[in-house]
Each structure stands twice: as C-alpha cells, then as structure tokens.
Amino acid sequence: MTRTDPIDHTALHVLPPLPYAEDALDPIVSAKTVGFHYGKHHQGYVDTLNKLITGTDLASLSLVKLITDTAGKTDKAAIFNSAAQVWNHTFYWRSLRPKGGGAPPAALQTLIETSFGTLDACKKELATAATTQFGSGWAWLVLDAGVLKVVRTGNAETPLTMGLKPLLNLDVWEHAYYLDYQNRRADYVNAVLDKLIDWGFAADNLG
Length: 207
Ligand code: FE
Known about the structure:
Blueprint: H1 31-53, H2 63-70, H3 77-95, H4 106-116, H5 119-132, E1 137-144, E2 147-154, E3 165-171, H6 178-181, H7 185-195, H8 199-206
Antiparallel strand pairs: 1-2, 1-3
Helix pairs in contact: 1-3, 2-3, 5-7
Bound molecules: fe (iii) ion.
C-alpha cells in the first residue's frame, strides 16, 4: 500500500489507482457500478480508516500489519473492518481484468488440476462459495500448504488472518452487483468467472 509521510496525519492511507478505466469491465460490471464501488465504497473505507487511526499508535503501521494486529479484537473492530475492506477491495480490482477468464497460466493450471481435478471444478467451487455466502462477504481462491482451496469470508474478514495465502477474490457484497444484476448474484459471479477473472494475477500471487 502506498503511504504518505506518516507525520502527515491528514492522509495516511491512500486509495490505489484502479488498474484500468472505470468502464473497462463493462458490460459484465458496468462503469456505474465501478464508479460507486471504487469511488464511494472503497474510498469510504480509506477515509474511515484514516479518521479512526489518526493520532493513535496504529497510524504508523502498514495496512497488512494493521489488519493482523486488530483481527479478533472487539475494541478494534471498526479499525479492522475498514483496514481489511481497503485491502480486500484493492485485491478485488486486481483479481479482475478486461477480457479476463479463459485459461490460467500453465503453473497455476497444473495446481488447479492437482487440487480440484479440472478448471471447471475450481470455477464451480468458487461460484458455490460466492453464491452461498450468507449476506455480505467474499469468495477466495487461496494457497494452503501447497494446495489450492476455496474459502468464503463474511463482511470484512480476510484469509490474511487465517494463515492462508490469498490468490484472488470475488466481492459478493450487494454493492458489487446490485445495479447490474439486482438479486441475481449467481449471474454476476458466473459472468465474472467466465469473462473478467484474472488468472494471471492469481498465478503471480503463488510466488
Ligand atoms: Fe465491495
């Protein structure tokens, strides 16, 4: 996460630029959805986080350290929620790309076949996690001790605090799809998996 001078308590964390234009994911995810989701929701988490930590000991921590240090602490829940949502959303924008979908890079494809059998089985498991997450949350492809797994998390929860290595995620909060798909979460999820998901980003994260 890009940070400004920590002495400047007016802008500790900044909203990273979108990796593509706001209308680049259209029509799967419309420019209107990206405009609100990135410009209002994601920006809002950044702004709230900065308000909550300004002038506290937490102001000097990196975003990931802030997330792991506040996880599970009820008196720090508001800070955790904002920090994790900043990170989760930055990761989400990078999990998508215009003209995505298709075949993963060879190393990831091999790991997918070892872990799930086929790419279709992997996508099906991601879609099931995304559609069965009750209420707001996320579906994730993660690396767990050399094996790929699909997990889902509620609200702002993130695999970063679970000892898992996130490879890609899908936002299934209603704000991610409601303008385009209304209540049809499955249509949003399947369209994203077929046409926008960036397997190259997931492969890069295997590192
Ligand atoms: Fe979101």
